[in-house]
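@channel anyone free to eyeball this complex?
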Amino acid sequence: GAVVSQHPSWVICKSGTSVKIECRSLDFQATTMFWYRQFPKQSLMLMATSNEGSKATYEQGVEKDKFLINHASLTLSTLTVTSAHPEDSSFYICSARVGDHGYTFGSGTRLTVV
Amino acid sequence: GNSVTQMEGPVTLSEEAFLTINCTYTATGYPSLFWYVQYPGEGLQLLLKATKADDKGSNKGFEATYRKETTSFHLEKGSVQVSDSAVYFCALGDAGNMLTFGGGTRLMVKP
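replying in thread with the prediction:
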């Protein structure tokens, strides 16, 4: 089946540094990738939708200059958290549309900013 | 806009008990409905789905029926196991490829 590989699975970084999260579609082409954020014991909140070769569409309240999304190819989308701060600590998950009615998710990245 | 409401947890059951997790939705058009499961520290895995009214999705003993008249997609399992302990998310997918998630329900199954 369609698989999205997400790396790293966890990362600890110092406040003020940037962190890049990658999502690769392994056996299909992901025209659209969705990026979610999940706080402890809460649901997934859509941050942005990225389309290959064009600018990402951000949800209201999400800072596009802080959460940089790049979708330069049909198999790779990246999320870069710039100048990370402790409040950015969260679980980030990517997802890609598969077929007409399916979605596949990455395994998630737990980011801890210290 | 679209919304999904599911029962709050945690739901605590003994092994072999019957499980129901309620899910209702609000949407325009004819969305697809999904149940996802999330184990600790992991991403989401598709559990089952239904793409049109009266469809029944099923997988690993779990079932859910797309009820348009009650705008519901309740998740059921006849006999839960300890290994079913996880967080379950009901979700709605619209024609614009957007997924809307419910708040999640944590299930804890005791041996």
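from a first look: DSSP finds no helices and twelve strands in chain B.
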